[in-house]
Amino acid sequence: MGTGTLSGPVRPSQSSGERRPAFRPDIQALRAVAVGLVVLNHLWPSRLTGGYVGVDVFFVISGFLITSHLVREVASTGRIRLAKFYARRVRRLLPAAFLVLAFIIVAAYFLMPYPRWESNAQEVIASALYWENWLLAAHSVDYSHFTQSASLSQHYWSLSVEEQFYLFWPLLLLLLFKIRARRARIAGVAIVGAASLGFSIWFTDVSKSQAYFVTPVRVWEFALGALLAFGGAKYLLPKIAANVAALAGFAAIAVAAILFDDQTAFPGATALLPAVGTALVIFGGSREGRQWHTPLSSSPPVQWLGNVSYSLYLWHWPLIMLAPFAFPGALVAGMLTWQVKAGIVAASLIAAHASKRLVEDPLRTWRPLSRTAGATFAAMAAGMLVVCAAAGGLTWTYERHVDQAARDLAAEMTGPCHGARALMAGNACADPFGPARSVEMGPANRYYTAPADCPPPLSQYSASDGTKTTTKCDFSQGAANPTVVWLVGDSHAQQWQGPLLSLARKNHWLMYTSYLGGCPFAGIQALNYHGTALDRRCMAWTKQMAGDIAKTRPTYVFTSFYSRHERAEDHSGRSQAEQYQDGLNSYWAQWTSAGATVFVMADPPLNGLVRATDCVVLNPDDPQQCAVARSVAQPADPLTAAAKASTDPKVRLLDLTDYFCDRQRCYAVIGKVSVYYDADHMNLDYSLSLDQGIAAAAGLPA
Q: What does the pLDDT read at residue 507?
């Protein structure tokens, strides 16, 4: 968080002629509450489900303190010295931020598997340049990023929001101060805040995942704090009313932290609860003297926590994310043990105290930096350059590992005991569920890797938003009447493209692949991937594609999608199985009437929902610790149920579960190959080893 939120109190320099403002222990306590909520939410997300509102508390505090500082400066000098203002922000914020980013780069290299290096390096650069929130906003609507693990610097998004606020807010205040009427200035801030709040409510409804990160959605919270800075000291509440307001404010923050969760439409209008609660605490504390909450809020532990809150915010997240890699036994049933969590809290507090004493405070007043604004900005540029160069070095090292992994993979793909072949009849393979040759999933393992001999997607097959979805791979060798084959669905169909394209080459098919992420290929009323609204893009695309596929008169249509987690909702009260069965039969009938045999690919057993996604990485020598009961890993699936219930003899279910499980358990390593690429998609290497199994089940030449 920024200067006004997590660091020490804002005190203008004496040389400016400004009166030194009184220290506000209630605001320091608010910092402690806010950072405590965030840390507890990150460590115990199922216990304190709405702890993320601590960020909103920080934003309101920041708006209040920064605006108070700027208003005093304008009142005493008639201007805002922008260079000095920004230089103070740099000295207060960047040293600790750069220190943690440097730690992240080193820790990622030594503790994390190499496939995580690139994404962490990219986000370190975004964090160092303070546009991490926009990068995360872009990723939040990119289907390919849904299953990616969070980076070590993801929490820097809120710092990016604050720094962007600091860039334009002094300029806005300068403009408003050209208006002599005080009420007009307040009205200007109120208009900006109201516009931002309106946008926040609208954008949260339209795209909740993006809205969480983008700056305009959060400006109203800073503006709320700014309004307090303009009027809080002038309009004081009576003593009892001030105490009631402060307690009500703390209560509002607590209610939001306890009742909100990841399904809450947030930020939007719901963010008013913690934001207004914060404003009530600040407003109630504008009157000097002790308050009812003072014995607790002014206690040394609370004040100390507020004082180190900026560093604590910086340190706690990377330590949480690194714990499973630093201590392989830290996860039990996919969760950190309470002992490890307690250790993370202790380590975070120690690191926060050390960096506050040794980095934040000394460098804020270090003479070589504070002598001139130019020296501060030069140091800032140098720090950004060093951090970005180090991140670039991590990316370069990652690319070297990628090249080597691709060569290793190509050399290992042959042999009767490789991957799924270890479970095929007639292959006597010792220890088919033993350790994998490689547990690290890099670009060579991506289920969505496009083959080099397939051209870019065709323009005539696209989603309603213009997304190109279809690729034509012609292996027919110029045959006059080639065998036309389709593979359609979402990413859970795409994960089968490796073995099916292998079969297409061997059998000289003209093969089309078409995917739309998070979209069930059925004639249903489909909710979007987040389950919050009808996905009209998906419904329009599937309807168009169903007819287009039939027009090509295919010989085979392979289809699959993640029906267990893509909800149908026609408001009839019917079960998912019933809704899917009707919607699937209507499409399948179009294809079989056109002469196709429809092969319904049963989804592989679950991964990230039944075991830790990093289980194999954390247990490389004993992957059987990652085995899960078959009934748990392969629950009922509406798509599979519809295929079994179909009376059309040309609709056939291809259920390859026996290549993932024995009778009791499903495995994460088979034939020395990691089965999964991420939380819910196959490793390309493993899927390629299924080509013979698919051919045998479908009755095709292998």
A: 93
Q: pLDDT averaged over the chain?
A: 89
Q: How far apart are CA 327 and CA 309, in angstroms?
A: 26
Asked whether the predicted pLDDT for residue 445 surpasses 60, the reply is: yes
Reading phi first (left if > 0) and then psi (alpha if -120 to 50, else beta), residue 490 is in beta
CA angle, 116 then 119 then 121, to 5°: 100
Q: What is the C-alpha to C-alpha distance for residues 613 and 437, in angstroms, rounded to an integer?
A: 18
Give the separation between CA 216 and CA 236, rounded to whole angstroms.
Answer: 30
- How far is residue 146's CA from residue 405's CA, in Å, rounded to a whole number? 24
Query: Mind listing the pLDDT tens digit for each residue in 594-621?
Result: 999 999 999 999 999 999 888 999 899 9
Contact 132, 212 (CB under 8 A): no
Q: How far apart are CA 677 and CA 115, in angstroms?
A: 11
Give dist(CA 244, CA 401) in Å, integer: 60
Instruction: Tell me the sheet residues that pair with 489.
Output: 515, 560
The single-letter DSSP state of residue 233 is T
Residue 142 has pLDDT above 70, yes or no: no
pLDDT score at 596 = 95
Exposure on the CB side of residue 611, measured as CA atoms within 13 A: 30
Contacts of 436 (CB under 8 A, 6+ apart): 616, 620, 623, 669, 672, 673, 674
Kindly report, residue by residue over 99-115, the tens digit of the pLDDT.
Answer: 999 999 999 999 999 98
Q: What pLDDT band is residue 408 in, cutting at 50, 70 and 90?
A: confident
Tokens of 145: 């990023």
The secondary structure of the chain in percent helix, strand, coil, rounded to multiples of 5, reads: 60, 10, 30
